[in-house]
Amino acid sequence: MSQTIVVKIGTSSLTNTETGDLALSTIARLVETLTRLRRAGHRVVMVSSGAVGVGCARLDLQERPRQIALKQAVAAVGQGRLMRVYDDLFTSLQQPIAQVLLTRSDFVQRQSYVNASNTFSELLNLGVIPVVNENDTIAVEELSVGDNDTLSALVANLIEADWLFILTDVAQLYSADPNADPNAKPIYVVEDLQELQQLQVKASDSRSGWGTGGMSTKIEAARIATGSGVRAAIADGKIPENIPRILQGEAIGTRFEPHAAPSSARKRWIAYGLVPKGKLYLDAGATKAICQLGKSLLAAGITKVDGRFMQSEAVQIHNHDGCEIARGLVNYSSWELQQIQGCRSEEVPAILGYQGADTVVHRDNLVLLP
CA nearest 256: which of 224, 279, 288? Predict the structure, then answer.
């Protein structure tokens, strides 16, 4: 059965950890694996890290730059080199590829989001393997995705993928650090990400020194993917041949089971494409109304407003225990909500001095999270 697959390869897998030079043998095996998947009828997208690491090696820099402007310049140097290598290897197998550079604004702005979705659809229909990276050269900090683990999950959500593979420098998750705890047990399947909170799962920084993500970003990527209805897996990046074996059901790496996806592409965009600008906290009655009864959110059920946001921006919605339960687009600014929180709908016009919306977040603009 044909499936849509997103494969994210990390800097630690693409490069030599000591020098930052490209690990050409690993890249060649990855290219062969993805090409075989494509020839088997699957639709394949690759999200590739490594531009900054390759740029550092090219410029003989001894450590990853911290200054944004320097990082962007180094990424511009490395991205061209990286794509040259990919193009040469894929071309040797007669597999066309395309470079797709994205920023957070491409997910936040609705029209850009739709355009990106349409572009991916056409590329995949043409049999092309898109090679995706964040556009480090122009991304500003407040609209930066920040790491390619998250970017890969956003792409998987965007294209409604069936699988997200995160290839990294560890073979799978463990209940504790296996280097320090002899009783650490491998985790093969995660049905619910809340299970990980009960375990001492190691969430370290990138081991290579050239990448940006640690295990915490991979778990967050799995949360986004599974919440979008995408099955995710963490596996050893040095053995890309494991991807088809995992697809066939072998217990390799750590697999994250998906939840029911939001009911529409627009709701998936609200849930994971947008960057929340604030938080709303609800009482028990409002929590029940939106979670169990499918109601819109009213001002009367809001107990606290955090952050600064404008009308129509996205917010996180938390229950009375402080757990995030939903996301949505608000009909009022944070300043207005601070005045009307806890008030009945008929009291709102007198408080604000104008007839506003009946709801704070309409149910059509509200997405429950798993």
Answer: 224
Listed residue (256, 285, 207, 151) closest to 18, CA to CA = 207
3-state secondary structure 150-191: HHHHHHHHHCCCCEEEEEECCCCEECCCCCCCCCCCEECEEC
Domains and CATH numbers, the chain: 4-266 (3.40.1160.10), 276-368 (2.30.130.10)
Any residues with CB less than 8 A from the CB of 367 and at least 6 apart, and which? 262, 267, 268, 270, 271, 326, 327, 328
Encode the chain (370 residues) as per-residue pLDDT tens digits: 899 999 999 888 888 766 667 889 999 999 999 999 999 999 999 999 888 888 888 888 888 888 888 888 888 898 999 999 999 999 999 999 999 999 888 999 999 999 999 999 999 999 999 999 988 666 555 445 668 899 999 999 999 999 999 999 888 888 777 777 788 888 899 988 776 665 545 443 444 443 444 677 888 899 999 999 999 999 999 999 999 999 999 999 999 999 888 889 999 999 999 999 999 999 999 999 999 999 999 999 999 999 999 999 999 999 999 999 999 999 999 999 999 999 999 999 999 999 999 999 999 999 999 8
Phi, psi dihedral angles at 175 (to 5 degrees)? -70, -20
Residue 360's closest CA among 285, 282, 267, 308? 282
**pTM for this prediction:** 0.89
Q: Which residues pair with 48 in a beta bridge?
A: 9
Q: What are phi and psi of 229, to 5 degrees?
A: 85, 15
Length of the chain: 370
Q: How far apart are CA 34 and CA 73, in angstroms?
A: 30
Decide: 48 and 40 in contact? Cβ < 8 Å.
no
Structural contact between residues 194 and 323, judged by C-beta atoms closer than 8 angstroms:
no
